[in-house]
Every structure is written in structure tokens, then in C-alpha cells.
Specification:
The protein has eight helices and four strands, in the order ααααααβαβββα. The protein has 178 residues and is α+β, with helices and mostly antiparallel strands. It has a four-stranded mixed beta sheet with strand order 2-1-3-4.
């Protein structure tokens, strides 16, 4: 993650968490981020150095009034626009969500499996990952038809590959080495 995005995300997290508003701020930012991603005109308008700051602030105000944005989000977006950083807004939003989760002791795990897991299997995986990391784990499950069997877990920068293909490759390596 780029350092500028992380600096802005940390500053916003400091304010939002101090005011007990991390969850609403994350939702409001995600809402604004969706508008930003959908509208080429909005991206160009906010990024343009030819547009004065009052005009940018006015548009941000109107959009937040429609989507229900707090003063924290409004002020954050004003600073981003004033410093010509709107082009990295999507990165900042992702970084903010990650920083807040980290500060709350929550790790996000992405689990891909060859077949749909039962509720019991999902719960067991989450429990095992929580024991492994010592943190609360929010798991997102998906199907990966390219896996022959088993599962692949991505936890931050770490990947645990328990797929059948990986096990077969390891076996092949051991047999050819011996």
C-alpha cells in the first residue's frame, strides 16, 4: 500500500476511532467511493487543478448531503481535494478499512475452496485461524473451480495452501529429489 494513502488513512482512523465513529465513517466513505468509482465526471472534476476549491467543496457537500455523510468524512474529503489527492481516494478508503480492522484486532481472511463449505467447516476454519493469529478473523469464502480439492487461505500477506494440487506438487518434488 502506498505510504500517502496509509498516512491519510491513519490520520482519519485516529479521528474516527477517538470519536467512536469508525464503522459509520467506513460506510460513508465506501458510499462516496462508489460514487467516485462510477462517475468519470466526478473524478475529473475533483482532480482538475482548474476547478477552484470552493466548487469542489460544494460538490462534495451536495453528494454527502444526498448519501448521508458526517463532518468527519466531509472534512477528510475537503483535505483530500485541497491537496490534489483525489486520484488515490480508492486506495485511501481500502487502507482506512484495513487500519481500522487492524486496530480493532480483526484480521481479514480470504478462503477459496474447491467445493462449497458447510457452516460447521467455515466456523472451524475461522476458529483455527483465530487461534493461529490471536486475533478475531473475518473470513470471506469463495469457490475456486481450478482447485482439485482442499482450500487456499490468504491472511494478509501470508498464504496457506492446503489445496490438493499443492500437496501433489510437494509429493512430486519429494519423489524426484529422492
Amino acid at each position: 500500500m502506498k505510504s500517502a494513502s496509509l498516512q491519510y488513512a491513519n490520520a482519519l482512523a485516529d479521528i474516527a476511532m477517538a470519536q467512536g465513529a469508525a464503522e459509520p465513517v467506513a460506510k460513508q466513505l465506501a458510499g462516496f467511493g462508489a460514487l467516485y468509482a462510477e462517475s468519470n465526471e466526478l473524478r475529473n472534476f475533483l482532480a482538475s487543478p482548474a476547478v477552484n476549491r470552493e466548487a469542489k467543496h460544494g460538490v462534495i457537500e451536495k453528494l454527502l448531503a444526498r448519501t448521508g455523510g458526517s463532518k468527519i468524512v466531509r472534512n477528510f474529503l475537503f483535505v483530500i481535494a485541497d491537496h490534489q489527492r483525489t486520484h488515490i481516494l480508492p486506495e485511501m478508503i481500502a487502507a482506512f478499512q484495513e487500519v481500522v480492522r487492524e486496530r480493532q484486532g480483526i484480521k481479514e481472511a480470504h478462503i477459496s475452496s474447491a467445493v462449497e463449505l458447510t457452516a460447521a467447516q467455515k466456523a472451524e476454519m475461522e476458529f483455527t485461524l483465530e487461534r493461529l493469529t490471536g486475533k478475531r478473523v473475518e473470513a470471506k469464502f469463495s469457490l475456486d473451480p481450478t482447485l482439485l480439492g482442499g482450500a487456499v487461505v490468504r491472511l494478509g500477506d501470508t498464504i496457506y495452501d492446503g489445496s490438493l494440487r499443492n500437496r501433489l506438487n510437494e509429493l512430486r518434488s519429494r519423489l524426484s529429489a529422492g
